[in-house]
Fold these 4 entries.
Entry 1:
Amino acid sequence: MRLIEHIGLAAANRMDPELGHKLAIKSLNMGLVGGKGPYTSPRLRCTLAGLDLPNPIGLAAGFDKNAQAIAPLLKTGFGFIEVGAATPEPQDGNPKPRLFRLKEDRASINRFGFNNDGMQVIADRLSRRPKTGIVGLNLGANKTSSHRAIDYVKVLEHCGPFVDFATINVSSPNTEKLRDLQGRSALTALVAGVMETRDQLDIKIPIFLKVAPDLTPADIEDISYVARMSRIDAVIATNTTITRDGLISGHADKTGGLSGAPLFEMSTRVLAQFSNQLGDEVPLIGVGGIATAEQAYTKIKAGASALQLYTALVYGGFSLVNRIARGLDQLLVQDGFSNISEAVGIEKEKYR
């Protein structure tokens, strides 16, 4: 980690978390966060749902909610990034404070509630994004919407021409009853509408589905069935959790979604369970608690074809991305793999 990054992280972690987050976006746009692009190698290059990635490490949605820092983020080391979530109408989200650092747990809790500038502003920014690099958009629904399934379609219609993939987010715990859309019947209808809209775009972009970690085996079976039948292009496992097991931070009792280190084992188990259900039919993106190359490798071996992270940046800075990529590359060398695809799912049976 460079000295300037160390100083910046120390300063950000002394201020209000949401203010620190805004400072990070501003620092990116001011060119204060260095980076020459993603670390890559023949072992790390991979294809996800038809998208060619220089490495499998992506930025999870929620960091750049309003697509304000796409160009600098693409230089930090990520193989792909996801912005949003975007909703049809702008919304302020939940009252502040709504973001909490759990330093002792290397975690955070947020209850933002899909605060964003709305699809029209976000689409305008996406239309001016760099032509290189893989950029996706997380689709959301307005809190006051009378028909949330239509909201996802609206955002995709408006923003779809400017992104390389889009994600159906039915797993945020911070919008009331949103997770109810993960049930088989509701999810089938929702995904069908989004896929039909995608097929009408000039370019048929991949559609991903982001799920919660707080799922029963029956939930996982239902979602897997919908993913197969609807021909979803990838499943992102997982979003944040509402559980609080084993936390020691003073903020452990805050309402919202927990992310970071405590989520690693739970999200990895759910990931592997989806891998056991879906096999080679639907690729998986592993998210939750990744902060080291070893943890990234564990997700790959549990069934992930690609990865995303976010909370670890709060504690490790953006240089962490290429450190993980280089470390993952070395782990593949040590195990004799010529490409990361050869390692996908080799240990998923451990989680049955």
Entry 2:
Amino acid sequence: MSTDPAISAADTLRVSVLSEALPYIQRFAGRRVVVKYGGAAMVRQDLREAVFRDLALLACVGVQVVVVHGGGPEINEWLGRLQIEPEFRNGLRVTTPETMDVVEMVLVGRVNKQIVNGIHQVGGRAVGICGSDGGLVLARTYGDGSNGLVGDVAAVNPAVLLPLLENGYIPVISSVAANAEGQAHNINADTVAGELAAALQAEKLILLTDTPGILRDRDDPGSLIRQVSLAGARELIESGVVAGGMTPKTECCIRAIAQGVAAAHIVDGRSPHALLLEVFTDAGIGTMVVGSQRQISS
């Protein structure tokens, strides 16, 4: 039987890929996936469009997707325009009341809506909110307060998200939330994503970063640790293999897994369609952290 000449090799490949993805689509339909969106994937136009398409496709096939985003580079840009010097202490932005006003305006009023509009442009349906909306996240001041209005997560009430998820919408959440007195705080987006994933009992927490994942040798991309248990992840921190900016991301994964999230992933957001590669392939991409009760392959 001859092949219809009107059907191109690209058409055949596209259908083959969709067919091979079917088991994954069936597995994750109705399950929840929390994505922390940041890094180069927010800055480069081609990567932004790829992420928006991935999110829309996941929602289209029945995955309940929640997006939590940062926006540090754009905050710095607007602080510069207002002649406010950015200051960091112990890796955290020192957030004065003046800086907090800029953080809130940029994350809630600008970056959040850019993401929502980008998802709409590729046919998805998204709703933009912040941690304060509906009492989603209750903040408390981080540490001893020396960083100003930097917050931590005191409590999460995901009830506001459930009607959106059940009706096929993608909640897009900026990591700004108020404390019990109503004062807005700037919270690390990784932290918010991890706590939301735990509260929603998500199947996956995916952190999009600017590195391939956890590296045994941070100068060698070939030393990627593809899978690690909860105990193994703690040992990597204690031994110093995980250090610097990778430490809070790994700790975020550990907390999420300890609270019942099935798997947490640190993936390279610079790879086009990293989300689909993680969710819809056996090999996945980046580093996967799982509970000790799961078998870890070598």
Entry 3:
Amino acid sequence: MSRGALKAPRGTRDFYPEDHRLREWLFDHFRAVSHAFGFEGVDAPVLEHEELFTRKAGEEIVDQLYHFELHDRRYALRGEITPSIARMVMARAGGLRLPLRWYSIPQCWRYERATRGRRREHYQWNMDVWGEPGVTAEAELIAAIFALVDRLGLAPGDVRMRLNSRALLEETLRAGVLRDRGEVFPALCVVIDKLDKIGADAVVEQLADPAGEIRLPPQDARQVVDWLGLRDLGAAADEAGPESQARKDLERLFELLDAYGVADRVEFDASIVRGLAYYTGVVFEAFDADRKLRALCGGGRYDHLLETLGGPPIPAVGFGFGDAVVHELLVEKGALPDLTRQIDAVVYAFSDAERAAAIRLAKRLREDGLGVELVLGTVKPKRALADADRSGARRIYLIGPDELSRGETSVRDLSTGEQTTEPLPG
């Protein structure tokens, strides 16, 4: 076997015990916030039919799919879970009580360049609301994101949310440079979502490319990029007009966020558009305040996704919060916890003559709800005590020939060294 085959594939991770403890600590916080906001957990297969993800061509995620053919069928590892959740909603659309409040912690796969905070295999926390058309749903989700940030021990100023509205962008462009070519709007969003990655000039070049799908005049392409630089909602909504529903939704959203006490951590940013074609309304992304890392999370409203799959129209909004980027931020801020192994007790038999008694004792302790490590081999008492101390256990139960003859076990408190006895199970 080659040496390369003995390494985890690039962009993936092995989770050794210390890594797994951190992962479960983070997942526990995901679950705690979800439950606090009244959301129920769901999951779906990591393997899906490829068509579920490729119904919209031109999106970056389509080119990043891990896909293959098996028995004349095309499959893909999920790059995101939202289409899977949509499929699940569609399967029971007639019998679901709306609005739905679902969360998940899926493992996702995207074949992209692995960099700091960006992995080909990652986990993310998703929260989705189905069946609520108003921005009360967006406000609840954004509040949940900041509730998580606070639970993780990050300072209020460490994470900032930037938001926009795809509807506002569409209204503005349809009133101007896309007045006669509204059908190219989804493709335009895919291009302008690359602004932070490739820069303004490159975005203008792609929007104006005569061989491309959008083919704007260069001056119109530059006008679009200039609009993306706006940070004032009023200025951004000028062309859409005072009766713009998208503008009213954003203004209402900021009012609701103020009631949640997080409005000062959120700002309007016209450049936030999100690259996935299914977004229809408010879109948002959270970043570390210093912008050293990629987005911690992103999401928005996708009211027509179910219809693209052949289902009934059900409004929806949700987000995905990745595990890799927040790990980098916690390291950066010195907020990553030092998690030790959690074990209550160790049971040690001096020899095989005491093994059966040790097993019965370990069994009883486990039935009492304790986490118990039974020493499986034959080691010297000094080694057993040292290993127990390093394991983080609170007590060690010692059974030697003398203890066995008396029908008891010696119990040593590993923090104080105090030793007592307890009867062995019959």
Entry 4:
Amino acid sequence: MSDSVLYQQDGAIVTLTLNRPERRNPISEREVVDAIVDALDRMNADHSVRAAILTGAGSAFSSGGDLRAMAAETESRARQPVKTPSYYKHGIQRIPLAFERLDVPIIAAVNGPAIGAGLDLACMCDIRIAGQNARFAESFVKVGLIAGDGGAWLLPRAVGFSKACEMAFTGDTIDAAEALACGLVSRVVPDAELLSAARGVAERIAANPAASLRMTKRLLIEGRQTRMDTLLEMAASMQALAHSTADHREAVTAFLEKRKPKFSGE
């Protein structure tokens, strides 16, 4: 795996770290896209992983696109616009699709600015925790662009349509307190406590049976766009599988015996 994204597993929890701190962790380059997608697919295939944390190295979570690289390509993009859709489809748009496939619960530990595609990356995660110095902006309009990475789908689901419109139309930056107030993040903690806070949530998640965690996440993802009757059919089928697991039997037995369950992942 590329060193642009660090993959560290400790027990049932994986921490992914965007690792281009000198450039504020942009995610638009093909190498970084490949590394993020590979890391998510690796977690999905490894059933020992029950929770994950995504953060950034250095002082930023992610600056999103690399404006210097973008400036160098401006003229060629303008001359051959027909190539741009393919650039996005085979580049940064692979990231939200990989997150959509991911059955592992993942927490964004936003340690600094999350700007443009960096904000949208945080929105791809299931839970967002911010350090006090985190900043957020859906800033594409400021540079004459639109969210080509799924932000128009992701942001309204995180903060509601009105607030998403305000952020996208103005491109203005909001601080961690405002992000908490509008529901973009679920908590704000001192910067020095960010990773330990995210780890604490990840541990509470990972304490639960792996199969039911993954199925619960899949139902929540599908519930964003699926009819109720269809989701109920999916839930019934998944419940049949859940009832057959050793971890379900252990949970029920432990409850009746008034002891802490010991889950095996089976």
